[in-house]
Amino acid sequence: MSNNYPVLSLSQKQMDQLSKVRVFAIDLDGTLLTSEKIVSEPTKRAIKRARQYGIQIVLCTGRALQGVAALLKELDLEQPGDIVITYNGGLIQATDTGKVLSHSPMTYGELKQIIELAKDIQLPLVALDPNEGYQFDTAPGKQSLYPSLMPIFNYPTRQLSDFDETHLFSKALLCYNVEELDEAIKQIDAKIYEQFNLFKSRPVLLEVMPKGVDKGVAISSLARVTNRQLNEIAAIGDEANDLPMIKIAGVPIAMGNAIPELKRMSQIETFSNDQHGVAAVLNTLLDILEENI
């Protein structure tokens, strides 16, 4: 602790790398949020302090904009110029207006393939677009757990034929009890993995994204949208779905509670999410900047 707030002890090389950062892409669960799913007071203060120095804070999540709206409001990240990365990199939006700045959608034809997959492995399917979530009756008698995990949409039940063939979706979700989900995953043909990006973001949740869409692609888009170089962008994460952004960000940062692979790929390791790890990184940068004033 320094000045009554958490900071990191870094090498000169690490401080030099961190000092260039002007944009932070921050994962939510296991990173920004504590185990109690809240933002700690030290982290709130660090974010406020960072914004006073012109540091841009960009939340990076698998959720829809509606799923992080309350958090954006709590952190005062709804001002003109603020942006958010949603759908695991599939969508970048302005937080004040919802304007889409970058979208890597799933097409009607691609969702049709995933619907057939869900029928084959007998799991209920949910698909999302930027405005709504839809349930598809791919496994009669089985109910997706996703609407209860993320109760931000109405989740009407639809047939694919209800949509125009030009309709664009954001991602598809297979959310069911972990034992049956894991058994079903074993049945997925390798060709599906060649055509789509599949990953588990929770024990009960398998996400399906268009091929090439992940948080790493989002970091590249973020650099373009913010007119920043990659060495001015830091990414902070903890789980496997954060690995793509850790690989591409100029300054990759691992939480103390991160998986081993992510720690190996990072330049800096901070404290855990329950020890104000995000706050420590931000405060360390800001202390460096203050020393150079």
Descriptors:
alpha/beta, Rossmann fold, 8-stranded mixed beta sheet, 11 helices, elongated
Task: Please tell me about this protein's structure.
By secondary structure, the chain is of the alpha/beta class. It has helices at 12-19, 41-52, 65-74, 108-121, 146-149, 178-185, 190-195, 215-226, 243-248, 260-265, 277-291; strands at residues 23-27, 56-60, 83-86, 91-94, 100-103, 125-128, 133-136, 171-175, 196-202, 205-210, 233-237, 251-254, 268-269. The strands form 2 sheets. Strands 5-4-3-2-1-11-12-13 form an 8-stranded mixed sheet.
Whole-number average pLDDT?
95
Run of helices and strands: HEHEHEEEHEEHEHHEEHEHEHEH
CATH homologous superfamily of the largest domain - what is it? Answer: HAD superfamily/HAD-like
C-alpha end-to-end distance: 22 Å
Task: Round the Cα radius of gyration to an integer and report it.
Answer: 19 Å
State the helicity in percent bands.
Answer: 25-40%
Number of strands: 13
What number of structural domains do the residues give?
2
Envelope shape: elongated
- What's the level 1 CATH class of the largest domain? Alpha Beta
List low-pLDDT spans: none
Q: Largest sheet, described in full?
A: 8 strands, mixed
Total helical elements? 11
